[in-house]
Specification:
Rossmann fold; disordered N terminus; alpha/beta; two-stranded antiparallel ribbon; nine-stranded mixed β-sheet
Amino acid sequence: MSAQHPSRRSILKTAGGFTAAMAMGGAGVLAAASTASAVGDIPGLHITERGEQDPRMWYYRFQTSAIGGWTPAVNVLLPDGYHTSGRRYPVLYLLHGGLEDFITFDRFHDIRGLTAWKDLIVVMPDGGRAGWYSNPVSSNIGARNWEYFHIGQLIPWVDANFRTYAEYDGRAVSGFSMGGFGALKYAAKYYGHFASVSAHSGPANLRGGNGDLVTHWANASSAAVELNGGSIYGVPFWDQARVSADNPCERIESYRNKRVFLVAGTSPEDIQGYANETLVLATQREFKWNLDRAGIPYEQHEVGGGHYVRRDLLQDDINGIIDRLRKA
């Protein structure tokens, strides 16, 4: 793999030390905590740490009823001129992949450069090392209700504390890998929240892959690194209603009147030892087939290479999001 497309495994090794430093030292490369801010709490969500001195990238860490024994964080990337414009802005919720965190898109994917002088707020929350943007069936490590944290707490907090359009045409959701699945899931399950949805190497069918491999992938990875043996969908038997509720291919009508943007690689690069990009590609093709049958338009890119974020397509995605959402 070329230098500009590092493997996910090498990225994660580099990220490990940085993430540990963040956990110990708060905002790390971000500004130290500010004591003067209009940003406050909402019920069930309490700010324990903040960094607001950088004019664009603001950082928060929360104590939340949704996540036990740990304090998840979020980066909020503000547009150039936000502090003086007085305008409201559309919002992109950008979701990281497995074994990653809220820093990933800033640290490795130049989200600041990709959004420079663009009228868009980008919210990048923690989603767990293998949280799958879900409320699990079981957890042996305390609450890990990432879905409730994002939908029930974080979105209302963002809308209450930043100048956003708190409406369907004011929000998009996008993500990589596990985060791409999360984006597809959230956009369908919470139809009125997001007018645009994007999945960069994100699996699009929990029941796809000749043996329900994505559901097995979610269960195995979450048990190993997120839930201390717990389960997203249940073991040895799945909660079938929960799988169907989360499955993009079983919620096709929920993508009608949305912008849909898909990316998958064509090389079988391993992903966390549980699956590979070939599986992701197969599930996206199944999803496309269902969209075609329903007459729902989409933009899809099958490109060479394996499981990583492609800067040019992330840039295209951001530009398309801005074109679809309500203007600042």
